[in-house]
Amino acid sequence: MSRSTRSPLLLAGLLAGAGVTHFVAPTSFDAIVPRALPGSPRAWTYASGAVELALAAGVALPHTRRHAARATAAFFVAVAPANVQMAVDWRHRAAPLKAAAVARLPLQIPLVLWARSVARTREAGAIRQRSTSAGVAAVLDR
């Protein structure tokens, strides 16, 4: 399996794993929901978990991959405030926990770039497939 084939599946796996965790162990996610958001933190935890599961399915399927990967990049940007909230809340915890909370902040950048890369890979694959199909049709027309 090539790297371009594995990358979307790995991203889908990451999203699916995170999505399931929102339902299996929601308390840790509830704690990082920014307090400025209306409603209960648990509702936001479940909603973001459901979105991650839907994005995972979309990224896993070649037909929906491009749009789902773009939506995933936007999702990673949208949940960044939760990581900021965690860093603020954990600033007085033990050094390893504080370091982990702060380290999560820049990790959103490679996640966004990864999702964008998966979207472009799908686009390139679709273009290649169309041009190959057109080439085969041209040969058959001769």
Main β-sheet: number of strands, strand sense, barrel status? none
Report the end-to-end length measured between terminal Cα atoms.
Answer: 35 Å
Count of individual helical segments: 6
Residue-averaged pLDDT:
87
> Any low-confidence stretches, pLDDT <50, length ≥5?
none
Rg on CA atoms, Å: 19 Å
Globular, elongated, flat, extended or rod-shaped: what is the shape?
globular
**Strand percent estimate:** under 5%
Determine the fraction of residues in helical runs and give it as a percent range: over 70%
Multimer state: single chain
Report on this model:
With 142 residues, this protein is an all-alpha fold. It has 6 helices and no strands. The chain has helices at residues 3-24, 26-30, 41-60, 65-78, 80-89, 95-141.
Outline the fold blueprint:
Blueprint: H1 3-24, H2 26-30, H3 41-60, H4 65-78, H5 80-89, H6 95-141
Helix pairs in contact: 1-3, 1-6, 3-4, 4-6, 5-6
Could you provide a short overview of the structure?
By secondary structure, the protein is mainly α. It is built from six helices and no strands.
Descriptors:
142 residues, mainly alpha
